[in-house]
Amino acid sequence: ERTLSVHARIMDSIAHIETYLRQEFGRSDSNGAVTAEIVEGLLTKARNALEGAAAVVGDKKASEEAYRKLASISVDTQVFFDIFRILKSRNELRLEDIADLELKTEHPGSGEISDSDRARMIAIAEENYKSEPEGFRRMVVDGISKAFANAQSEFHVLRYKGSPVAFNRFDTLDTVGGDRKHLYFGSFNVDSNYGNGKMGEVMIEQTLLKKAQEAVIEADCTSHAPIAARYIETGFVGVSRAEVQGVHGLHIRLDSKENELYVAKKLSFEEFVARAKSGEDRDGVLYRTIDGISGFEPLSDGYVLTRYVQSERPGPFYAAFERHPQG
After folding, report:
1. DSSP readout, 44-87?
2. pLDDT in the model for residue 272
3. Could you count the other beta carbons within 10 Å of the beta carbon of residue 65?
4. Peptide bond before 314: cis, by omega within 30 degrees of 0?
5. Where are the alpha helices (DSSP H) in the chain?
6. I need a surface site. Which of 45, 137, 227, 298 has the fewest CB within 10 A?
7. With contact defined as beta carbons under 8 Å apart, do 242 and 299 qualify?
8. Distance CA 116, CA 34 (A)
9. Nearest CA-CA partner of 128 in 225, 252, 246
């Protein structure tokens, strides 16, 4: 009965997709293509709900767990983010047209980030890093908490119906010389319950890439995590490796001016992967296939990591190492 209730709510939402699309996203679906894709996704969710319940009939504990997961589903939220994902994949998403979504720059010292917001953001990070070693997870969460106490930190918070669902922050690095501003990019999290890769892409496009037009960006990530490849392919280069609280860390830098000098960044995806698979050295570039944990020795010999792709998960990473322009 409980499962049928969730199934009914999903099915009911299908009848109102076009109205929802117009009211929440400010657009019509003249040829019905977006609506059809959304409906297909919702029908799959409804079918999975019934199949999941049927699979645990007679097992009280498993049935309660299955229903707990179903009950946590907000159909409106699922519809919202399905539309978000589809429009983004079609390059038809306009953030300013979306009624319940708002991206704002907020500073801890201004009172813009409330205590409940902070608790929510910490909870998102805790969930995202729950599988990491305890020391590393605590370091990440403590870093966010310390940033809340730093009036100079600049947070970018994406809110759905007023609640944070994604965020990142930028800190000014005072110790770096030169005539260009250097910023540290960190605390990038997307709510795993509501978010998806497309939401992460929007956050990168609307915050990180805009900041990179005026500054050099420094950051850290885990070398064997998919996000590391995402960062490198977005424009970062890997600079150095370090073991951090039991995790293989990779320090990265995004410098739009230097990127113009790197050969591998100009290659098509197909050409780059082909060279990495063959393990060739060409035009001063080392093309390699590595496991994401080892294989970074060139970073200790004046090279930087300029391309980094994992085409399948689990699977190897394809990498390109080039000499840093300054040696």
Report:
1. HHHHHHHHHHHHTTT-HHHHHHHHHHHHT--HHHHHHHHHHHHH
2. 97
3. 13
4. yes
5. 2-14, 17-25, 33-55, 60-71, 75-89, 115-128, 134-148, 197-203, 209-211, 226-234, 256-259, 269-278
6. 227
7. no
8. 35
9. 225
Closest by CA to 285, choosing from 245, 318, 240, is: 318
Residue 15 CB partners (closer than 8 Å, separation 6+): none
Residue with tokens 């990127």: 259
- Contact (CB, 8 A) for 122 and 145: yes
What's the token pair of residue 161?
């119906």
d(CA 228, CA 237): 10
Alpha carbon separation from 204 to 15, 164, 171 (Å, rounded): 34, 16, 16
Locate 238 and state its tokens: 């890997």
DSSP 8-class letter at 198? H
Residue 240 main-chain phi, psi, to 5 deg: -155, 160
Residue 117 structure tokens? 């917001």
pTM for this model (two decimals): 0.84
Contacts of 174 (CB under 8 A, 6+ apart): none
Q: Where are the alpha helices (DSSP H) in 129-265?
A: 134-148, 197-203, 209-211, 226-234, 256-259
* 3-state secondary structure string across 99-118: CCEEEEEECHHHCCCCHHHH
**pLDDT 10s digit of each residue in the chain, 327 long?**
555 666 676 677 777 788 888 888 888 877 788 888 888 877 777 677 667 666 766 777 776 766 665 665 566 777 788 888 888 988 888 888 998 899 999 998 788 899 999 999 999 999 999 999 999 999 999 999 999 999 889 999 999 999 999 999 999 997 655 678 999 999 999 998 765 668 899 999 999 999 999 999 999 999 999 999 999 999 999 999 998 888 999 999 999 999 999 999 999 999 999 999 999 999 999 999 999 999 999 999 999 999 999 988 888 999 999 998 775
For strand 215-222 and strand 181-190, is the pairing parallel, antiparallel, or unpaired?
parallel
